[in-house]
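User: I'm putting together a teaching handout on how multi-component assemblies are represented. Below are the sequence lines for each component of a complex, exactly as they appear in our records. Could you produce the 3D structure of the whole assembly as structure tokens, so the students can see both representations side by side? Please keep the chain order the same as the input.
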Amino acid sequence: MTLERFLILGAILFGIGLYGALSKKHAIAVLMSLEIMFNGVNLTAVALSRYTVPQAFETASKFLLTGHVFTVFIITVAAAEVALGLAIIIAIYRTRQSVLVTDAKELNR
Amino acid sequence: MNYIDLELIIPEISMALLAGLIIVFDLFSSNKRLLVPLCLIGLLVPLFFCIAAAQESAEAGFMGTMQVDDFSIFFKYIIILATALVILSSATYAKRFDNHQGEYYSLILLSATGMMLLASATELITIYIALELTALPTAALAAFIREKKSAESGMKFLILSAVSSAVLLYGMVLLYGFTGSTHLSDIGTAIATQLSGSAGITDHGVLLFSVILITAGFGFKISAVPFQMWAPDVYEGAPTPITAFLSVASKAVGFAIILRILYMVFENEALSSDWTSMMAVLSAISMSVGNLIAIKQNNIKRMLAYSTIAQAGYIMVGLAAMTSDTTLNTSGPVGILVYLAGYTFTNLAAFAVITAVSESSGDDSIDSFSGLIKKSPILAGIMTISMISLIGIPPTIGFMAKIYIFGAAVETNLTWLAFVGVINSVISAYYYLRVVKTMFLNSASEQSPIKPSVGPLSAAVISIVGTVAFGLYPRPIIELAREAISTIVG
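Assistant: Of course. Below is the structure of the complete assembly, with chains in the same order as your input.
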């Protein structure tokens, strides 16, 4: 396995997620696409960390596993983001009985 | 890391504790009137610690992830001031939230905590966490009113800010892969060594790509064109004091972190010319688009949203004026800090007046300001001065800030950009003065006088006094800004 393959997979995931986040109608699907974007980033971070660790060993120990740590933080924050997103989606459903993003056109009249 | 590092973030810790205290107080007390005074008195604690920290020399802590220097303290002053004024101007507005007032105020304080952390963060992971701590509470606050518009604005803000932070993260991760570190200073040295001997950034596709992604991510935070789409909708739907908070505080820290990254990472010659030309173009587009679309708005919050986009364009002139002939020039960044401080006073005054007027009229259209001079002369006067300051007419801080920032552009051979800025100021006079004209010349449908409540009125008076006083005597702000910039210029 080479670093390139991971990076390419990460880029593909990021692209799919970005496309989904901008094109999906259903708010839940948009949140799912956001998760795919974050996971593309996570994969890239972990792969870069794994392949740069031997070098980092020689220079300074503080660079060790930074990418892994980064990923853990991204996962945590993404979870908080989705929790808030779901709460707002429920609030929207209560006011207009629909969670389609295309129905959200109350503003800019 | 040792426990002494904790001293560095005492302002943030006290701010977060205050947010917790407000929640607990709200839980056990039915007297909601005490919440605002409690917040305001509580805010004196972080302010005190910031003043104390300003007396000491710059210090880095937490394994180099945080740096407390005059630069971060300058922004902490702005954040604490903006938070206090926003809380003061929501004193009557927040009554509509009944039992949820405590959450409302503590979410504002939590967001402010994130902003203060962001002002002193010098490491990519810390920057990301602080950025999300800033954005998530504001998304919840934008959706705080239980009606369609507010929920919609909250959802738009959340989704778009999540997309932008994913883009930003991808850029950060690629930068980490390219340099092997997430510390801004190490990234700076790594880039300098990798770039020496090559033709510049275009030789390194990864670096170029990550710079573009990071610019897009931060462009969203400061609502610069072409990443401004969210601003008008979110500003219109969110509670008015929250709109003020978004337009002032979160924009200020956006610029803080951009300046920090520019100075610590991209300060070497090969990169600075790429940066400045990119910033100059973005700045010219932001000013023009913001001002031209603002002209046809009928909702005052929407109009000020486009005005914010245009103001971001003016501030970015300072970013473009950072370098001249490969030497670093500090007058651009000093101008940015002066502008942000002035903008804080001016915009908060305008939004406090809007809060007071919409409380009695019940809507946010520019027409609801008709005949305000008869209904409430003091509100009309404050709004007029604030509009004058936004255009950039003396004797206000808006004028001093514009002089400073356009002067920096001329100094660094960006005369064309200063010219675009001046033309845009003239265009903007049209829609700012339209509000003044509506207040003074149009007659209102009903003549009953507006009696503004104490909270918004005092917030408006404090900010307008700041606008005029620092317009006449801007020296203290300029001195503070100079000191702040001199600590981050290597």
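A couple of points students might notice: DSSP finds 19 helices and four strands in chain B. The beta strands of chain B are 59-61, 66-68, 323-324, 327-328.
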